[in-house]
Amino acid sequence: MNIDAKNLAGRKVYVAGHRGMVGSAVCRALAAAGCSDVVTRTHAELDLLDPRAVRSFYEAERPDVAVIAAARVGGIGANSAANALFLYENEMIALNTVWAAAETGVKRLLFLGSTCIYPRMAPQPIPESALLTSELEKTNEGYALAKISGLKLCEFLRRDRGLLYHSLMPTNLYGPGDNYDIVHGHVLPTMIRKFETARENGDAKVPLWGSGSPLREFLHVDDLASACLFALALDNPPDLMNVGSGEEVSIKRLAETIKAATGCPAEISWDSSKPDGTPRKLCDTSLIRSLGWKSEISLEEGVRRTVGDYRRELAAGTIRL
Ligand code: GFB
User: Fold this and answer.
1) Which of 147, 186, 220, when mutated, tests ligand 1's pocket best, judged by the most ligand atoms within 8 Å of its CB?
2) In whole angstroms, what is the distance from residue 40 CA to residue 19 CA?
3) Which of 59, 136, 297, 306 has its CA 20 to 30 A from that of 50?
4) How confident is the model over 198-211, as pLDDT tens digits?
5) Is 6-177+218-247+282-298 a domain of CATH 3.40.50.720?
6) Where along the chain do its domains lie?
């Protein structure tokens, strides 16, 4: 999608988390849109858990716009084993990056969360209005609570101080630079690695988690990056907008799609001792679509591309395992 990045022309943009899958996609999209004044810091240069360091950074750099793509992320295994850590780190990152931006005069900020902020039994597809209407999914409650704090802080700052701070909640993401850790990764990259490894080793079976029946929606990270630029181009964006592909698949169908894309002949075996997580998570994207944005990369196309990215990253030794 060609997006008119008028609100970014000549602006200095801070991208928090530029080395992550989302932040790097946002940086690529900004570069493609002609935004050359992008400021970043590595984790070693700036600890986002340290409020004083974050404030000093904003005071020194004075960005016009901030995109908060930094977070501790992981799949169901990582989240359910460390809800405390996911709550603490993501809460600190959200509060520090958003609050210090407001205190130092950053006029516009886009905060990124995830659709796991919505209740476990939210109506499907999940509208933005489902926020805080009932209990969260336990496996990722810490992460969800932190992201809810971040988006609420943006909403309150917009209301209290007139700052143009707003949020996007993307569905399950994948793409180049993803984390392929078997235990901690998200389902899509983990499956790519499992099928690729089984193909290379000539294994007869590929062990996958749960029942295969949960329903999910996946969005290529380049589509999310285009949604970020789209949201930043709006003069009066909604406080909160979902971003998804609208394409719902069962975990079983996802596995079959990845098996076909990798060319792995092994049989799938489901491990019912592993959690299924939330039964269904399809977000309602009618709000962002009504404003003129839509995703462009189908799951089949995105999986094909990502298998290629996986092979390239593995060969180059740049892969996150
Ligand atoms: O991406 P994922 O780990 O997390 O996907 P969530 C979990 C679903 O995939 C569950 C199934 O139904 C699993 O049973 N699955 C099957 C597998 N095989 C595998 C496998 O090999 N690895 C993994 N990881 N899952 C995450 C949240 O929830 O969604 C995060 O934990 C974040 O906080 C993210 O919000 C978007 O989709 O359940």
Assistant:
1) 186
2) 9
3) 136
4) 999 999 999 999 99
5) yes
6) 6-177+218-247+282-298
